[in-house]
Design brief:
The chain is of the alpha+beta class. Helices cover 27% and strands 34% of the residues. The strands form three sheets. Strands 1, 3, 4, 5, 6, 11 and 12 form a seven-stranded mixed beta sheet that branches. The protein has a five-stranded antiparallel beta sheet with strand order 2-14-13-7-8. A hairpin with a 2-residue loop joins strand 7 and strand 8. The radius of gyration is 16 Å and the shape is globular. The longest helix has 22 residues.
Length: 238
């Protein structure tokens, strides 16, 4: 389990909560609230390869942050979406090249919150795989991303398919306006489950979300039943 966090004072635009339970060490997360960037990565492959793939993918974003590439590309919503998708695609290529001959990869969910010239806040996101992004608003939780497979049958992820050297293509992205008190929730499938009886419903997710982000993140882990690494990252818009 690895999480990259910046060393800075918390950004007053957000309140962030994180909770983790590492069982196999295959989850990774990014928390960079000073640029509104957050992400979760869930590796697959066993014997350490999944954790390596997840850490490698998150490192692509860490390098981009060090080089200020994310700042430079955030001048419009279109550029921001293109940037997030492009970084995930770069990560897919790097994971594919670095794990040649090994069946492994990582699913990923990355979001960034941006204010435009009118000080409205917008959420942009890009993803691959079966980890989830939820929006909690007015007592309801709605899934923004859709599952690309489940369990051992993931149709998309960062890396390459078995018997192929070509990296997978990132196909999911989007944006929406967010308002104060909205919570954006990123969770790996260790939290939500991928089949009965471990699968959490939107109603079960919503039932624990009316609280401070740190408490929400921990309660999501508490209600999960799947025997897997678990990561919950909750971002409340202030």
């Amino acid at each position: 389990m690895y999480r990259y966090e910046a060393r800075h004072e918390p950004d007053p635009r957000f309140e962030v909560g994180t909770a983790e339970l590492p069982l196999k060490g295959e989850d990774t997360s990014i928390v960079r609230d000073e640029i509104g960037l957050f992400g979760v990565f869930d590796g697959a492959g066993g014997s350490g390869e999944g954790g390596f793939a997840a850490t490698l993918a998150s490192a692509v974003f860490n390098v981009a942050m060090i080089k200020d590439e994310i700042y430079e590309a955030a001048d419009s919503l279109d550029n921001q979406i293109t940037n997030l998708v492009g970084l995930l695609q770069d990560a897919s290529k790097i994971v594919s090249k670095s794990t040649d001959g090994v069946t492994t990869g990582t699913v990923a969910r990355v979001i960034q919150v941006k204010e435009d010239d009118t000080v409205l806040s917008y959420l942009v996101w890009a993803s691959a795989g079966d980890s989830r992004i939820y929006l909690y608003r007015d007592g309801e939780a709605s899934q923004l991303s859709h599952d690309e497979g489940f369990g051992h049958h993931i149709s998309n992820y960062l890396g390459h398919a078995p018997n192929s050297s070509e990296p997978k293509i990132v196909e999911q992205s989007g944006f929406m306006r967010v308002i104060p008190s909205d919570k954006i929730i990123l969770v790996t499938d260790g939290v939500t489950g991928d089949k009965e009886p471990d699968l959490l419903s939107d109603e079960q997710i919503a039932a624990v979300c009316d609280d401070e982000p740190q408490n929400v993140a921990q309660r999501l882990l508490d209600i999960s039943t799947k025997n897997d690494d678990k990561t919950a990252l909750v971002v409340e818009i202030k």
